[in-house]
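_Backbone structure tokens_
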Amino acid sequence: MMLIRIDLWLLERLEKFAHWFQKLTGKNCFWLSRIFIIWGAMNFIGPHQLNILKENHKLTVLILIASIVSVCAIGLWRQSKRHEKEVLRMNERGHANSFKITSFSFRIIWLLLAIFAIIISLILLLLHLPSFKTYDAFFLLNYALSWVLYGYFSACDPLPPAKSKVKQWKEKFVNAVKGAFAPAPQPSPVPCE
């Protein structure tokens, strides 16, 4: 019961953020979820794996891991695009995002893994183990949080498409610049009679 409350609270807060972000930029919650797909893949392939490369000098292992993670990220990206089309079609009919219910277990599992990663990282950092460094803790936390946020933003309901505030500001700025650099009206001679 407590997990359901935490899930609903987080989903409500992140959906409000997604709506604010969409009004500001015109990019919906699925765009945000795809950002976290990229973030998760970059966290997995990035600094942590480069550390393995430095220590073990195994380029083939790094290439294999990067390939697997890239294929998984591309698959998730495509799935997110398909899901976005389905949700936008359902929203036109007045239905909510079905992923709110169907992805509950996905969100909770990754949320628990993120909490577990925080606890384990804090314990290992407090024990000052020589094999566990601060960047390992940062990697674990970033990786788990990227999938938590992917799951929550995928479950949000997007707003209907509208002109974003950024686009409105841009249009006002362009019109102001055009007005400032427009040629001054030239007086025309009036014939005297």
Q: What stands out?
A: The chain is about 80% helix and 0% strand. The radius of gyration is 25 Å. The chain has one domain: 24-165.
